[in-house]
Design goal:
The chain is built from 15 helices and 20 strands. It is α+β, with helices and mostly antiparallel strands and 573 residues long.
């Protein structure tokens, strides 16, 4: 899944929706920290509150100032920035609520845009220099996340980036519609928002920014590791493979270690803990679990360039997700292939249970047991041994005491229990789901409904000849009662579900679907209302008049900006 999809999962547990779609409680809004001055214009959208003095004329693009903030200083930061912008007649915008700020800085947020709380729009380079000089003392001592796409001004919350002020759009090399800036020759090109500071090749860096740009090249302490590759990135930081330098305390972990990075003040969980706090917590958990076979040894946390790094022993094998994708037999497998896989998968599940039991014996629960946090050693040929296999568990940043119910809002869809279960109960449920998932890998659908569980268990039992003892255990461990429901006639139910999901009261979409529809006003054939209404008619289900009226009303507002059947005006027609 692309990173940007995660942000669209928060507002609705069933369908993708805009990250800002949920209503904010009045007490969470930041409007009170920046009153609207007389004569100023206020424009509200679901994410931002825009404020501008009368007769404001700004260029289409230029250098803009971004100010970051934490949950506990956001109102203070906004009040200071707003007062200065009002005094200087400078347009600005700010995130509307605490919830939007938390969402934009979450672990799964977009790394390139994360951290932005207030945006200030200078009129030109001279105005930029004056605004930075005026804001710096007002924000002295305030903290905020580093905005990776920007140039940081000093070590506080002020950042600067060159980009668009107004909404201009173009297609990138993949054909996606993206924000744009205009080159001197008039051509529109993508406004690149990367997790590093970049400047368009035709733009000169103003003199007031040069010292800060140069400081990024020469500043920062050296990391005592040689990074050889990146495993993955998140807004909390990266995970790398690295070689420890001479004399590094992690040298005893082996020639190559896994290096886990935590960005300060970034990657927040639901309780507001940042990545640094979670990394320190994981380090403490691993120290308590030291010596358990199947868990990585850890070195000491190292700080370099303000970021925190925890070296971990490299554990053998690949993730359980990869192992299942590589080994799960095709639907039409023969009996021998099914029996062989069942024997191997059962050995893996039994070993997971054993490692989890050892963790529980130390009084700790993992609380995020999922296929990507389990490693299976590919070098073991289970068929030629006594059935044992080497399994490792990784990622203990949300681990806690067995009876603790505070999971900090993290967890993996399908493998987590709803509500705030105790740690032992959460792990026991995840173990059971993993055992079933290896034979029927559809666990994320449990976030929508647990009703299909009986059918999944029955399908896995019959497909792999697992027997009644296995299915009885699965039903007991997962709390399944009753018999599997028959498939029945799916068509009428599908049509009723589609029609029932319609939201004709919304302007941005008629039917829930892929997040791509939010870039095309919910209209297009590929992802929007036009395609759904066409499919209903082909299936013999006449669309409701209110739905056709929605499409016609939306077309009256639509300004065609692209060709193509899938995303463009021809498909809608």
């Amino acid at each position: 899944m692309q990173q940007r999809y995660w942000a669209h999962c928060r507002s609705d547990p069933t369908f993708y929706d805009r990250p800002e779609a949920r209503d904010d409680r009045p007490g969470d809004r930041y409007d009170g920290s920046a009153a609207v001055p007389d004569g100023w214009r206020e424009v509200l959208d679901p994410t931002w509150r825009h404020l501008a003095p009368p007769r404001t004329r700004l260029p289409d693009q230029g250098w803009k100032i971004h100010v970051s903030a934490l949950l506990d200083n956001a109102e203070r930061v906004l009040a200071a920035v707003a007062a200065h912008c009002v005094a200087t007649g400078t347009p600005f915008k700010h995130l509307r609520s605490r919830r939007v700020l938390l969402s934009g800085n979450a672990k799964d947020a977009d790394r390139a845009s994360s951290g932005k709380f207030v945006t200030v729009y200078p009129r030109d380079d001279a105005d930029l220099a004056g605004l930075l000089a005026g804001l710096a003392p007002l924000l002295a001592g305030e903290q905020g996340p580093r905005i990776l796409s920007d140039l940081r001004i000093g070590d506080g919350p002020l950042h600067v980036r060159y980009g668009g002020f107004r909404h201009l759009w173009c297609d990138d090399t993949d054909g996606a519609r993206v924000p744009a800036v205009r080159r001197p020759d008039g051509a529109l090109v993508p406004d690149r928002r990367l997790p590093r500071f970049v400047v368009p090749d035709w733009v000169d860096v103003p003199g007031c920014l040069v010292p800060h740009r140069d400081a990024t090249v020469t500043g920062g302490s050296a990391l005592p590791f040689t990074v050889t590759s990146a495993v993955r990135f998140s807004n909390a930081g990266g995970i790398y493979r690295a070689v420890p330098g001479p004399g590094t305390p992690a040298a005893g972990l082996g020639g190559t270690v896994v290096l886990k990075e935590a960005r300060p003040d970034a990657g927040w969980d639901a309780s507001g803990r940042d990545a640094v706090a979670r990394l320190a917590h994981e380090h403490a958990m691993l120290r308590r679990l030291s010596g358990i076979p199947g868990l990585p040894r850890s070195g000491e946390i190292v700080v370099a360039g303000g970021h925190h790094f925890l070296p971990l022993e490299t554990m053998p094998g690949s993730t359980l997700s990869t192992w299942v994708a590589r080994n799960l037999p095709a639907q039409d497998h023969d009996a021998a292939a099914g029996a062989g896989y069942a024997r191997r998968a059962t050995a893996v599940a039994d070993r997971i249970d054993a490692v989890v039991a050892a963790v529980h014996a130390r009084g700790i629960a993992i609380r995020d047991l999922n296929p990507d946090n389990v490693l299976v050693d590919d070098t073991d040929d289970i068929d030629d041994t006594d059935g044992t296999v080497r399994v490792s568990l990784v990622d203990f940043e949300v681990a806690g005491d067995l009876d603790d119910r505070d999971g900090h809002g993290l967890g993996t869809p399908g493998f987590r229990l709803p509500g705030r279960p105790a740690g032992r109960a959460a792990d026991d449920h995840a173990r059971a789901v993993l055992r079933l998932w290896m034979f029927h890998p559809t666990a994320p659908l449990l976030e929508v409904s647990r009703a299909p569980l009986a059918g999944w268990i029955d399908h896995a039992r019959s497909r792999f000849a697992l027997g009644s003892r296995w299915s009885d255990r699965m039903a007991r461990d997962l709390g399944v009662t009753g018999e599997p429901a028959g498939a029945g006639a799916l068509g009428p139910g599908l049509v009723a579900g589609i029609l029932g999901s319609a939201t004709p009261d919304r302007r941005d979409r008629l039917f829930p679907g892929d997040i791509a529809q939010f870039d095309v006003d919910g209209l297009c054939f590929g992802h929007g209302a036009a395609g759904v209404l066409h499919a209903l008619r082909v299936a013999g289900a006449d669309p409701r008049p209110a739905h056709e009226a929605w499409l016609l009303d939306a077309l009256a507002r639509y300004e065609p900006d692209r060709a193509g059947l899938w995303l463009g005006a021809p498909g809608i027609a």
